[in-house]
Write a structure and sequence with these properties.
The chain is α/β, with parallel strands linked by helices and 301 residues long. The chain contains twelve helices and eleven strands. The longest helix has 31 residues.
Amino acid sequence: MPLPFNFPDLASLDLFRSVVELGSVSRAAEAHGIAQPSASSRIRTLEGRLGLRLLDRSPTGSRPTPDGQLISGWAAELLRYADTLAAGVASLKAEQSGLLRIAASYTIAEYLLPPWLERFLADRPDDSVTLEVTNSRAVLDRLEAGSVDLGFVESPTVPASLNQQAVAADELVPVVAPRHPWASRASVDLTELATTPLVLRERGSGTREALEALLASVGHDAPQSALDLGSISAVRIAVINGSSPTVISRLAVADDIANGRLVELTVPGLQINRTLRAVWPRRNELSRLAAALLATLPTEA
């Protein structure tokens, strides 16, 4: 059955949904990158097409009417399907152009993916890869939004909505600069480490989540932060040049430990082994290039 001629356009429904979520037309207009008069006009047109008053407007904001609340709920479901369609179209276009879109957490992106991708593309002159480097939580968000085909994360847990393949193993190790007082000690107590300010990755990173989970499992609070940094390389450099410890991927500091730029500490009770994973949405079939890349990677951590 064809849609009625006055069926509302998806963009107007999406704007209306934002008004309901944000509580005002002005905030919704800002979120959509349009002027408030334009947003108000589109909402009035939407109400005219539906023949319903959707919002109660006041100087303090806008609230949905009972009819508007119903329309908002129905629109949310429709827009979820529209998001899936848009993501699918983008994936098909990327596939046709020979483009593989990847998002990866910092440890994997900096220390594992470069040689993997170099080998993968060596005999694929017509194919290419875009790589977005971010923390594990943001990788999952990109997959959910459909803006990437494949993700790589170091988080200790993966949502049930994602398929996963183990691609590597990693270990988190405590390290300090050689001049730090702990560098000459035979061992450092876990409680002392847990109550000492550390150089840490930002919230949402798999490294930080793994450390927090270990400390919580033995009754300690989340680690104190001397400095929060947005990449594993920044953490490494800060510890080499600063005065605070960190707990960091062995992949990132193996050369520094071997060359004496950092000292690995012995901390009884601190053992964090983790699995690094490739992940992709269960709802989507893997693209040709994503499947081809996974076939070249280890299947056990």
